[in-house]
């Protein structure tokens, strides 16, 4: 069982969490100005990279709060967790 370190509750089992997709995807400043293609890009297209990946998670069966995490997609290891609204932390020796 994978443990995820909720920044508010501490380590909990992964089955208490809900994945929320890629973190730090900015909402368009004026979505009405977007073409259908650009709106589709915003809604459906995300990075799909190996290695460190910033994600949104919710502790759905716990405190019900959202937070961001950096996870290595090759190993599933969580490298950092941080509150929503905080900037992505720099990891020592990390690659993006
Ligand atoms: Zn929590």
Structural notes for this entry:
The structure is a single chain. By secondary structure, the protein is mainly β. The chain has a single domain (3-83), classed as Folate-binding superfamily (Folate-binding fold), CATH 3.30.2270. The protein is 9% helix and 34% strand. It is built from one helix and six strands, in the order βββαβββ. The strands form two sheets. It has a four-stranded antiparallel β-sheet with strand order 3-4-5-6, with no helix packed on it. The longest helix is centred in the middle third of the chain and has 9 residues, at 36-44. The model has no long low-confidence stretch (mean pLDDT 93). The site of zinc ion has 7 residues, from loops.
| CATH architect. name | 2-Layer Sandwich
Within CATH, the superfamily carries the name Folate-binding superfamily
Largest sheet: 4 strands, antiparallel
Tell me the overall shape.
globular
Tell me which ligands are bound.
zinc ion
Number of helices: 1
The fold-level CATH name is: Folate-binding fold
The end-to-end distance, rounded to whole angstroms, is 26 Å
> Roughly how much helix do the residues carry, as a percent range?
under 10%
User: How large is the radius of gyration?
Assistant: 15 Å
Which strand order spans the largest sheet, edge to edge or round the barrel?
Answer: 3-4-5-6
* Pattern of helices and strands: EEEHEEE
Mean pLDDT, all residues: 93
Q: Total domains, how many?
A: 1
Would you count the extended β strands for me?
Answer: 6
Q: β content, as a range?
A: 25-35%
Q: Low-confidence spans: pLDDT under 50, at least 5 residues?
A: none
- Name the structural class: mainly beta
Report the CATH C-level class. Answer: Alpha Beta
